[in-house]
Design brief:
With 332 residues, the protein is of the alpha+beta class. The protein has a single domain, classed as Sulfite Oxidase, Chain A, domain 2 (Alpha-Beta Complex). The strands form two sheets. Strands 3, 4, 7, 8, 9, 11 and 12 form a seven-stranded mixed sheet that branches. It is globular and about 55 Å long. It binds ligand MTE. Ligand MTE binds next to loops.
């Protein structure tokens, strides 16, 4: 397989190289199926996939995106896509337990309809969006992003959603807004580990406004051409592919614009280990382990080599300018 890599280690896409032909064709077929979906269907199970598909860009457009040269298209990786069964069964979602298998086992209790996301704080247009309205706010696309967890494993996942910037533009942040906070659901009735002492619930994450506006930052509703499984953060989560996975909050209920850097769940739990920025950086180790290499889920086995972790997870050309004047060792 031919893989072209430029100076920053970013791997440029050619659609047939994205993944195995079979996985690629199956996904294409599914998206096509979804694109023919019935209007107004409830967003659960098959009916839900069909309803969501109305908001997903047509296969032709997607194909252009994969092979294209736009800023966002450059974000599509050429790595082999992780198997769906791995991406949906090896998870971090501490509200449902701390073992990797817990979320898939326990998240069936999560109630994802009705669902609202309230936009609050320093914006001209505060509003509570119903999930259906949010789904249709902008055309959805499939984007294949690497996900690198701070713990040293990674996956390559075809997410479905649109740039968070589309929503941000609609709600018009005030000039004083500098940060965006993402508050996720903390419902002790449906989430068995909310109340445990691991974290200070709710799970809160945040970005600087310019990071949130970067076109790579994806407001995500689906993966592998389907609605998000509960364990992956249904019905709506963030995916910030150049940062460690914990920055990508799941099951978001509130997005708040602020002028001060928000406290985030992992930063509150262990500030010296989990910084506000948490950009993927092979040169800045976690205090308890190296971040120079990673294990790609699905490549385990006795002889599987660890991969070198890429600066900004391979998205350097799209995001390095956000940190031009910063000491990334201090502001990790
Ligand atoms: N969001 C919430 N609400 N709760 C969590 O425990 N875990 C984070 C992030 N988002 C987490 C969360 C971590 S540590 C990672 S690595 C990613 O979700 C994992 O996403 P995935 O399970 O879809 O791969």
């Amino acid at each position: 397989m031919l893989i072209k890599t430029d100076h920053d280690g970013f791997i440029h896409p050619v659609s047939s190289e994205i993944t195995s032909e079979k996985v690629y064709r199956d996904r294409r077929a599914l998206i096509k199926l979804m694109a023919g979906g019935a209007a107004g269907a409830a967003l659960t199970g098959w009916a839900g996939r069909e309803a969501m598909a109305q908001a997903i860009s047509k296969p032709g457009k997607h194909a252009a995106l994969v092979g294209g040269k736009s800023a966002v298209a450059g974000a599509v990786t050429m790595d082999k896509v992780t198997e769906y069964k791995d991406a949906s069964s090896y998870n971090n979602y501490y509200e449902f337990g701390t073992d990797k298998a817990d979320p898939a086992r326990n998240a069936g209790t999560l109630v994802t309809r009705p669902w609202t996301v309230s936009i609050e704080g320093l914006v001209k247009q505060p509003k509570t969006y119903g999930i259906e309205e949010l789904l249709k706010l902008s055309a959805q696309e499939e984007r294949i992003y690497r996900m690198r967890c701070v713990e040293g494993w990674s996956m390559v996942i075809p997410w479905v959603g649109y740039s968070l910037a589309e929503l941000i533009k609609k709600v018009e942040p005030l000039g004083s807004a500098k940060y965006v906070e993402f508050v996720t659901l903390a419902d002790p009735k449906t989430m068995p580990f909310v109340g445990s002492r691991v974290l200070d619930w709710p799970y809160v994450e945040a970005l600087r406004l310019d990071e949130a506006m970067n076109p790579l930052t994806l407001l995500t509703f689906g993966m592998y051409g389907e609605v998000l499984p509960n364990q992956n953060g249904a019905p709506v989560r963030l995916v910030v592919p150049w940062k460690y996975g914990f920055k990508s909050g799941k099951s978001i209920v509130k997005i708040r614009f602020t002028d001060k850097e928000p406290r985030t769940a992992w930063n509150k739990a262990a500030a010296q280990e989990y910084g506000f920025y948490s950009n993927v950086n092979p040169n800045v180790d976690h205090p308890r382990w190296s971040q120079a290499t990673e294990r790609r889920i699905g490549e385990d086995g006795l002889f599987a080599k660890k991969r070198k972790t890429l600066m900004f997870n391979g998205y350097e050309s799209q995001v390095a300018q956000l940190y031009a004047d910063m000491d990334l060792k201090k502001l990790f």
